[in-house]
Design brief:
The protein contains 14 helices and seven strands. The chain has 305 residues and is α/β, with parallel strands linked by helices. It has a four-stranded parallel β-sheet, covered by helices on one side. Strands 5-6-7 form a three-stranded antiparallel β-sheet.
Length: 305
């Protein structure tokens, strides 16, 4: 257990009020240490919350001991299945230490253990961003990523020829007048970036997976395109005009048959198709389905040969 008994600093305002605060802080610190010695982690945690609310200037002094107390108390709460109390303690801790990678990582571990993998990934990712050298958080993030990121994402991203074909196809579509693009199920955002780089005026991308959405946000930002691509964390069928996007969009997707994106259109109700102003036709030369939007062909299942 970390050994920490910081001396309360004299209140800046002086007078009886500051002196009373200092005495209360000192008593609470002493009580917290006694409770830790008795392994009464819940009461110790409450005392540290009081100390830090009254004397936030002591954060650095009690940080390690506070972490130790939080983690021990959280273990007890988990064993007692007091999940709401456990999460509440971490929320309080993160209000006090919002940029503490150790607390973020511990929160992620509890969430992962409870089956909240998307949420756990978010805390692991935040911990890694706060401290890229924090190996525990990196290992946890990679572990949860294996659960959340479908392996075919890696296959597609490493298929250089495929990406070149789609990049060329998107460039051609934009040159022919497709200036507004909606990428359904954007994944890492690569096709949206192709469209923006090709000169599309407006690019929108939706992604249902929280993990992939956050990853796409990072990828787009790393490529300095966050101001040119609007990312939506939602299902494509829930997109409304003009609530989420201001105008009808040209649809372009990577592998519709494989990941059921074509099902967005083929399974749509007549009312939904009418709302999108879509009508279905079949190409006689390819026997593949495409959709016509206001008389113009705007999407089709394109396959690299």
């Amino acid at each position: 257990m970390p050994n920490s008994r910081p001396r309360p600093r004299r209140g800046a305002g002086g007078g009886a009020g500051a002196a009373g605060r200092d005495r209360l802080v000192a008593r609470s610190l002493q009580s917290a240490e006694h409770c830790l010695g008795d392994q009464d982690f819940g009461t110790a945690y409450a005392h540290y919350l009081l100390v830090l609310s009254l004397a936030p200037e002591l954060k650095d002094d009690v940080k390690e001991t506070f972490q130790y107390t939080l983690f021990k108390w959280a273990e007890e709460l988990h064993a007692l299945s007091r999940i709401q109390d456990l999460l509440g303690c971490y929320e309080q801790a993160l209000e006090l230490f919002p940029d503490d990678e150790v607390i973020c990582n511990s929160m992620g571990e509890h969430l992962f253990r409870m089956g909240f993998r998307d949420e756990a990934a978010g805390y692991f990712h935040k911990a890694v961003k706060l401290n890229p050298d924090f190996n525990d958080a990196k290992e946890n993030f990679y572990r949860v990523a294996n659960w959340l990121v479908e392996r075919w994402h890696f296959i597609m991203l490493n298929d250089t020829r495929r990406n070149m074909v789609y990049n060329a196809a998107i460039q051609k579509a934009v040159c022919l007048g497709s200036r507004t693009v909606l990428d359904i199920g954007t994944g890492t955002g690569i096709l949206s970036m192709f469209a923006k780089k090709a000169g599309a005026q407006s690019v929108y991308a939706c992604e249902l997976s929280k993990t992939m959405y956050e990853l796409a946000c990072d990828v787009v930002a790393a490529n300095k395109m966050e101001n040119g691509i609007k990312l939506l964390h939602m299902k494509s069928l829930d997109i409304e005009i003009p609530k989420h996007i201001p105008e009808r969009c040209i649809w372009r997707r990577n592998c519709g048959e494989f990941n059921s994106c074509m099902g967005t259109f083929t399974s749509a109700t007549k009312d939904q198709r009418r709302k999108w102003k879509l009508r279905e036709v079949w190409e006689s030369d390819t026997s593949r389905c495409c959709y016509i939007w206001d008389g113009s062909r705007v999407c089709r299942d394109t396959k690299a040969s």
